[in-house]
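User: Second chain of the day. Same drill as before.
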Amino acid sequence: MSDKTEKLQKVLARSGHGSRREIEGYIQQGRISVDGKIATLGDRIEVNSAIKIRLDGRILNIKEPQKTVCRVLAYYKPEGELCTRHDPEGRPTVFDRLPKMQGARWIAVGRLDINTSGLLLFTTDGELANRLMHPSREVEREYAVRVFGEVDNAKLRQLTQGVQLEDGPASFKTIAFKGGEGINQWYNVTLTEGRNREVRRLWEAVGVQVSRLIRVRYGDINLPKGLPRGGWTELGLEQTNYLRQLVDLDEENVTKVAVGRDQRRLKANQIRRAVRRHTQVASRPAGKRPASSSRQNAGKKTTPKGR
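Assistant: Same format as last time:
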């Protein structure tokens, strides 16, 4: 089956011939035919100039689907948010503060643990998201990690050479010391996988606990400076096409991002709205939301020095 096919009722609804539910009724009543054959529920078609769709014998005008612009957001995920669209317990999710759209939806590129903060990408292009997440692409991720415990050269060597986890061997591509005192120290680590809790589990495997974890980079996309926790910004054409090239997708030539002064004003407004919405969520009565101290500090950064 061609990946360009769409459900018949979706095509007809887009073309203004009724709601999807109404059109499903027409199909069930045998009133719609496609190229002379009576349609049935579940039929998919590929829209082209030669196709003939009739309702009660009358040929219908059909609109071809408009090309969707690939959009990408960089979001600063706070601790305490879940990477899911809906949580049965009513806990906050990473989708709560994203901008609303018509005709498209945001897809998260991977996940971050509830206790992990930092850069999370969203896109409207499902193929882009799937390719970026696929292990074969080996897209590099960088994390700032605060660890608690004794770290010596032997442990650092073990973490880069590889340790055995329950789901197979794993290692950091690089480890760089970033400062700290005593047994509380900051490191920046990189890896090219996205396994569940992999950074934490690697450190735990050598007897060191992770007390803070922030993703600061995905590929060559850095966590934007000045972006507060809970804030988002849309990537421009150059960064969007960098991600598309990374996974062998054609470049985009259209963007919805404003340019110049308009872009700076829009970005500032977006950040203010995101923080205001966050404050509103945090101030709801306790019975309507779970308490979360990390969300109450959404506008503050406590990243390591120089980060």
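DSSP finds eight helices and 17 strands in the chain.

User: Great, on to the next one.
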